[in-house]
Amino acid sequence: MKQENMPKADFVVSILLMGFGVWVVLHSFQMPRFKELGANPLSVPGIVPGILGTVIFILSLVVFIRSLTRRGYRLGLNRQTLKNFFQDISLQRMLLTIFICIGYGIFMVGSMNYYPATFIFVLVFIILFQFRGSEDVSARGKMLLFAVLQALLAAGIVGAVFRYLFLVDLP
Amino acid sequence: MLDGFLMFYKALWGFVIQNPVMILYVLGATQLGIVVGMLPGLTATMGVALMTTLTFKMEPDSAVLILVCMYVGAIYGGSRSAILLNIPGTPANAATAVDGYPLARQGLAGKAIGIATTGSFLGSVIGLLLLAFFTPLIGNFALKFKSFEFFWLAIFGIVICGNLTAPKDPLKGWIAGFLGLIVATIGMEPYHAYQRFSFGYMDLSGGIHLIPAMVGAFGFAEIITVMKQPKMEVVKGKIDRIFPRAKDIRKYWRSIIRSGLVGTFIGAIPGVGEDIAAWTAYDLAKNSSKEAEQFGKGSIEGLLAAETGNNSAVAGAMIPVLSLAIPGSAPAAVLLAAMFIHGIRPGPLIMIEFPEFVYQVVAMVLLATMAMFVLGLFMVRPLVKVLAIRRSRLMPVVFVLCVIGSYAIQARLFDIGVMVVFGFIGYFMREMDYPIAPMVLGIILGTILDKNLIRALIISEGNPLFFFQSPISLIIAIVTLITFFSRTRWFQALKSKIRDSINFRT
Lengths: 171, 506
Hints:
The structure holds two protein chains of two kinds.
Chain A: H1 6-29, H2 47-69, H3 79-87, H4 89-108, H5 114-130, H6 137-165
Chain B: H1 2-18, H2 21-38, H3 44-55, H4 60-85, H5 94-105, H6 109-142, H7 147-165, H8 170-184, E1 187-188, E2 195-196, H9 202-205, H10 210-228, H11 246-251, H12 253-268, H13 274-288, H14 300-324, H15 330-341, H16 350-353, H17 355-378, H18 380-384, H19 391-408, H20 413-431, H21 437-460, H22 471-485, H23 489-505
Antiparallel strand pairs in B: 1-2
Helix pairs in contact in B: 1-17, 2-4, 2-17, 3-4, 3-10, 3-15, 3-19, 4-5, 4-6, 4-14, 4-15, 4-17, 5-6, 5-14, 6-12, 6-14, 6-17, 7-8, 7-21, 7-22, 8-21, 10-19, 10-20, 12-13, 12-14, 13-14, 14-15, 19-20
């Protein structure tokens, strides 16, 4: 992130962190005190998270005040900045990476066999990031062939090592 | 002392002569560590974390040996891409790039690699000597620690780690540390077995496991960061003479020893790590050099200082791991977790329960250092080809390892989710300039803080004065408070006022 945008980021993040600190403290208060068991009031489950939540709130408050003095509240959100933001190639690459990785890690692993899931993930990842429509047919064919080969090897070798060498029951 | 030497000799004999397979482990793991370190996007922490999952069914000494070799190799390996691409393979090699890359651009890439290898070797040797000397001393001293001292130690770890990993804005480092401490409170608490922040989910009742959290925060976050960049540089140019000249090393012996000592000391500070060690060593070398103007333009001394500093910090980071069960760096945190997985209990009792293990670790560092030196000098040209691998081909395989690595330890799909969530957290923390290392340290220190704070509160009946009663806790508390307030404006103003008044009187 550019340093000139940091006060804006600090402004937003500090509000979230203050909210988190307050939530932790409130949740800590709701934890049982075990009075009926004669527990020492200083040993109750909520005491440590309560203290930590308070510290997070205080430190975030300092960041918040500092961001106010640096005019971080001027977020400057308008249609043009949002358009520029979403047209940024880095953002598109980042979202694509997150999308494929979550698709594999959260949805595919566990719901289908490990080997085909891994094969599909590696293949799709390589194709999405390496495919160039401008390249000639033979270059694209070569790329695809290598992608299939790598996906097969990655799924097979990683799976086999964990399954047969380290005796892990693959998902 | 003699007992220590005998235990070290016995450990070395056991590794080299009695079990020659260990030599293969050393060479293989160090080589793999060098490859992991040199590839931008794969850090030492990630390498050690993934290797933990690969070794958790092995014998404890073999597993820890492999992890130590991976750690030493990866911290050294990062110098390759720093020199050849101006991209540090690991954060620990950022200072290496400052003088390494200009040397490569002058057609002296081979010389720079040779100097970096020698510096790493010498740094590691200095570090392991200090590791052998100080671990038993600190371990014996830490036997005097009670709840108050452990509480202050945990707070000190977070404060100093936050201070040093976020030098521009320590506030963010402290927030990251305290967030880590809160993460550690998830799950069953130690006194009443109450499940905190689990919301009825069985998986959360056991807490957040360190390895998936670290693999996510360092590994998945790194994958997102690397894939986000539209272009990456590729290696160009030939490699010249690699073996360093003795006169280059002799000329800078003072800088080497100073960097080794400073690197080990910084490495031993909880959670701070090799990157800060390298920068501090580099900075000190620059300030005391007769050739200060050469720094940043291809200075041999600068390169030596940076590499000596970061590799000596590896051994330094193991001093608190073994003596206090508190990691000196992020990869050392994984190493600590791996030791617990294998039934080894580092901490103040180690010199009573497993004194030989301390010297086994020293022997492991020595073997890894020797392997790194040999492989570093002889495997330069074939390894440079690894840097030409496209990241779109490398990163999916890395993510596959992140997924299976997170899953393998407890065979729970939940841990893959933890890895992904911490990947997001780690990525956004980086973007917002919040360092990840204090958060990881917080997750580790959370248990220590939780148990000892409650115990201390019960003993003191809530009287805060008890927290400053013993001399050790008073010293740690004062150092913590000074570290905390040293970054405030009024403290800086007070310091300059005192300095001015001293100057005025003299």
